[in-house]
Amino acid sequence: MLILLPPSEGKAAPRRGHSLRLEGLSFPELYAARAGMIDALTTLCAGDPEVAARTLGLGSTQADEVARNAALRDSPTARADAVYNGVLYEALDVASLDAGARRRANRWLAVTSSLFGLVRPGDRIPAYRLAGGVSLSGTGPVATYWSRHLDAAMRQAAGRGLVVDLRSSTYVPFWRPAPDLASKVVTVRVLHEVGGVRRVVSHFNKATKGRLIRTLVDDGSAPSSPARFADHLAALGWKTELGARAKGGTRLDVVVSDL
What we know:
By secondary structure, the protein is an alpha/beta fold. It has one domain (about 1-255). It is built from eleven helices and twelve strands. Strand 8 (about 165), helix 9 and strand 9 (about 185-195) form a beta-alpha-beta unit. Helix 2 packs across helix 3 (about 65-70). The longest helix has 18 residues, at about 200-220.
């Protein structure tokens, strides 16, 4: 099973650790594409800081983010699941999982990254700032760039198993499943229901996804189809509603009343 996650916008900057080794990351077929994106970002951030901040959509108080990007090749690294520190990752809390669940998390989870394309939780990366909607000189739009490079890595990661897509809308264009793979993709949406009214609530949507992933890696089962995945979640206590198959996979709504 492959569980696709979005990155967090904010990141915890490691204070110590080895510098970045691209050859040590998972999905080595992405080495050249990663090097190209890193070159584009560091070149931008080593130049005029105001131009870099404007290009990256940063405010005047975020000059440190530009400087960090400029030095990222030499910056300390840590596990990706420690660098990504947003709401989803706090709820998932890989470090507190038991040994078996941690192994499954390292094997099943992959984070869609604007800088690295795709990383596993145990890959050692530096903190960086690059949103999915940015366009850089030398690469063009980040999402378009990765859409040309990720398919082989995604197929290798998915194998013959199910792909559970938990990415936010910004990162969906990085990779869209081809028709031959779409039947093995389930796209998960979290809905909050109060008084019969349902809506998506971004912050708590992320927290719920983190708890859902934690439930899955704790349990250890790997359903092989969207329908079996929906039934499995229901057996684990989640309220699920499976939709029709679409071009990008089968939609699964997870409905929660408590956040």
